[in-house]
Specification:
By secondary structure, the protein is of the alpha/beta class. It is built from nine helices and ten strands. The longest helix has 18 residues.
Length: 257
């Protein structure tokens, strides 16, 4: 079943064309990597898939239906978007800047539950504790503040916030680029375990082809807002067909098989 889809999406900033006729789809349980140089359009695609922007051409579809179609009443659009927000959650690049330093961890992780009206009181506290446990952090983490944790722990907290709403899709923007090598491996393994245990789908943007090779079953290669190659990650990274993809792969000393 296709959960999230871009159809012939185009997007511009002023006179600058950022995306041009981009189509991609994400099935249930799928893991999709987006790679390309800075300015290729990767982060713009994430914004569209998160519903933070609308394509100037084409469509974003969730479970086969256009996101917030104009034919729906305001109340139905709000209901649709609340369900979408609970189902599609982001994990950002820098865990320190994405966590409010003035709030305790339980407040941070519980924000989706409050804003989406998913749980409150004891039920919310139980779900917060479950989310912390799922990312390998002790229950007393909930009463502490972001500055008390390492970078890897903060990223685990950010992931706990993303999964507390029990989403179907995680959209991760460079989720390990701010981490050291050992912690990077641990966080990638965590994302893979959560995906498999909970049947999550994953879209991950990364400049790090080794991270994409480890975490994603399929890969889309973008250049100047266009898809130049896509397919099974092993085929794209170990037998690239497009010259641009070959140049990206050749810049990496060694890719895992």
């Amino acid at each position: 079943m296709t959960l999230l889809e871009l159809r012939a999406a185009g997007f511009s900033y002023g006179s600058r064309r950022v995306l041009d006729d981009v189509s991609l789809s994400l099935d249930a349980g799928d893991s999709l990597g987006l790679v390309g140089e800075s300015g290729a359009g990767k982060s713009t695609i994430l914004r569209l898939l998160l519903g933070l922007a609308a394509p100037h051409e084409g469509q974003v579809l969730f479970e086969g239906a256009p996101l917030s179609p104009g034919s729906l009443s305001l109340s139905k659009r709000r209901t649709q978007m609340r369900r979408f927000r609970a189902s599609v959650q982001p994990v950002f690049q820098d865990p320190y800047s994405s966590l409010d330093p003035r709030q305790r961890i339980d407040r941070i992780i519980g924000e989706p539950l409050r804003s989406l009206r998913l749980a409150s009181g004891p039920d919310a506290q139980r779900r917060i504790a479950e989310a912390l446990e799922s990312v390998g952090l002790p229950a007393d983490t909930a009463r502490r503040y972001p500055h008390e944790f390492s970078g890897g722990q903060r990223q685990r907290i950010a992931i706990a916030r993303a999964v507390v709403s029990r989403p179907r899709v995680l959209l991760a923007d460079e989720p390990v680029s701010a981490l050291d090598v050992t912690t990077r491996v641990q966080v990638l393994e965590l994302l893979d375990r959560l995906r498999r245990e909970n049947g999550l789908s994953l879209v991950m943007v990364s400049h790090d082809l080794t991270a994409i090779a480890s975490a994603c079953d399929r890969t889309v290669v973008l250049q100047n807002g266009r898809v130049v190659e896509q397919g099974a990650t092993a085929s794209v990274l170990h037998a690239p067909q497009d010259p641009y993809t070959r140049a990206l792969v050749d810049a990496v000393p060694r890719l895992p098989r």
